[in-house]
Amino acid sequence: MKNQLLCVTGALVFLSGCASFSPDGGFGQVADLTKQRTGQAVTWQRTPAEADSAQARVAELLGQPLSADTAVELALLNNRGLQASFAELGIAESELVRAGRLANPSFSFGHVAGGGVTEIDRSVVFSVLGLLTMPLARQVEQGRFEQAQYQAALDAVGVAAETRRAFFSAVAAQELVAYGEQVKDAADASSELARRMLQAGNFNKLAQMRQQAFYADATSQLVRARHQATAERERLIRLLGLSGGQLDFKLPEHLPELPGEPAAPTGMEQTAMDKRLDVQMAKRSTEATARALGLTRATRFVNVLNVGYVNKSQTGEARRNGYEIELELPLFDFGSARSARAEASYMQSVQRTAEIAVNARSEVRESYSAYRTAYDLARHYRDEVVPLKKRISDENLLRYNGMLLGVFELLADSREQVMSVTAYVEALRDHWIAESQLQDALTGRSPASASR
Fold it and tell me: Is the predicted pLDDT of residue 407 greater than 80, yes or no?
């Protein structure tokens, strides 16, 4: 009997030793999922060497004007919150490894002496139930580990999408400041000319106050635009994880030009079903819940089953060997409550997965509508409004040169032309943000979660 128990013990130790940590901590899957959706690589900086390599790349990227793609690469390298979220992957893998290892055995020792007799009891107890359910428990933890991988990829894709939107907003805000300064300069010249003409008696007080009001409005708008540019730049800085001497990075002077044609909506809903990370996470969560239900059913009636080796020795007598079994009897709780809870959890997971799928399809349609509206509006400003304002300005300049138009009308027209260009910049910014949100809705996550 003793030899048999020793063999069982050796087998248990061998089986427990088979569970080990993966070389990359499961991050390879995260990197692949992220690159497929962003086009950029992401790294998990777990060692000083990896951190140093990432910082060297950060310095290289900051040495040149940023683009949307390099900004995303920077964020994936340097965002501290993203690196912190990757630690959840290590926690999930540790639970997976633990599920593949048998629980430590318990050892008991008893010593009783009296009347010249000493009795010693020894026992080593192993959890047989843990061994029997180990494969299923490992499957459950494998599902949770896969969920953690998808969550890490979802976090990375989310940071990439937020960074892209922040980049376009920062560039647009910087560009709007430049146009706001032009409007203010025109209003300043108009107000100063009106003041001097009023002093010379060639202008009435009401007209002069109107020009002064234009100048006051232009000044206040410029102040707000400058603050907005600062706020958008700081938002981008937070996403890029920059500090200290890294804050003087350069942004391009203008937004990218509008594409020649908008994206076609063909197959977008199916793309969301196949590639969107929150949909894939919901599917795997349901599968993991189903596996957990199987585990619950396997242990429904047998809650605790331990077996162990026991020996007893007594003074003046030979040692006696044997075994003991510890079993919890289901007299009061037959496990029906745990089984019902697991089944309810499974049905809850099924319904939530269906809800996420329905919402994903709807969000893709809505995001495409927003994208197409933003594209059409930006193209309208580019092809119709801005050229029309330019032609009007050219005609007014000709009239001014022919002394058919006054200087104040010419200055007012100049302000309107700049304002039309400003509106185009805002429309172009909205297009690029809508395009980013559409891509996120297709392959990443819900736009509603991105806005929180």
Answer: no
Q: Is 50 exceeded by the pLDDT of residue 162?
A: yes
Tokens 């329905």 belong to which residue?
358
The pLDDT tens digits of the residues spanning 322-358 come to: 655 555 545 444 566 767 777 788 888 888 888 888 8
Instruction: Report d(CA 417, CA 406) in Å as an integer.
Output: 17
Give 423: exposed, middle or buried? Use CB within 10 Å, 0-12, 13-18, 19+.
middle
DSSP 222-236: HHHHHHHHHHHHHHH
| pTM value > 0.70 | yes
CA-based max dimension of the chain = 132
**Residue 247 to residue 52: CA distance in whole angstroms:** 19
Separation between Cα atoms, residue 376 and residue 3, nearest integer Å: 82
Answer for the pair 117, 315: CB distance below 8 angstroms, yes or no: yes
Name the residue with tokens 């949307």. Answer: 68
From CA 87, how far away is CA 287, in angstroms rounded? 24
CATH topology of domain 2-328+337-445: Outer membrane efflux proteins (OEP) (1.20.1600)
3-state secondary structure of 447: helix
How far from each other are the two terminal CA atoms of the chain, in whole angstroms?
64
Which tokens belong to 107? 């050892």
**Helix-strand-coil split of the chain, %, nearest 5:** 70, 10, 20
| Helix or strand (DSSP H, E) at 211 | helix 205-240
Q: List all residues 6 or more positions away from 187 whose beta carbon is below 8 Å from its beta carbon.
A: 211, 214, 215, 217, 218, 219, 411, 415
Cα distance between residue 197 and residue 194, in whole Å: 5
| pLDDT at residue 314 tops 60 | no
**Strand order from edge to edge, sheet including 320-327:** 106-114, 117-127, 305-314, 320-327
**Are 258 and 375 contacting, i.e. CB atoms less than 8 angstroms apart?**
yes
pLDDT digits (tens, 9 = 90+) for 86-101: 988 888 888 777 777 7
